[in-house]
Amino acid sequence: MELKTARLTLLIDPAKKAAFELLCARQDKTPSQVVRQLIRDYLTQHGVAYVPSGAAAPPAEPERAAPRSPAGRARPAAAAKSGKRG
User: What is the pTM of this model?
Assistant: First the structure.
C-alpha cells in the first residue's frame, strides 16, 4: 500500500465525470480508488516497474565482474567498455 500521495489534476467532460462518480458510488468505491487501480493496471500492461511508496526497494542487482582477457586477467574498465583488449 502506498504511504505518500501526489495530486493528479485532469480535465474531463462534466457529464462523463458525473457518470463516473455515479458508477463508482454504485460499486462502493471512490473515484480515486478506481483511477489508482486503472493506473496500476496500465503500468503493468506496458511492463513498467515501480516501487510504491512505503514498500521496500527491490534488492540491487549484484555487480558483474570485469570481463577477463583470454589470459585470464581482468581488463581495465575503459577497455572493457570499448571492447579493446589491453
Answer: 0.60
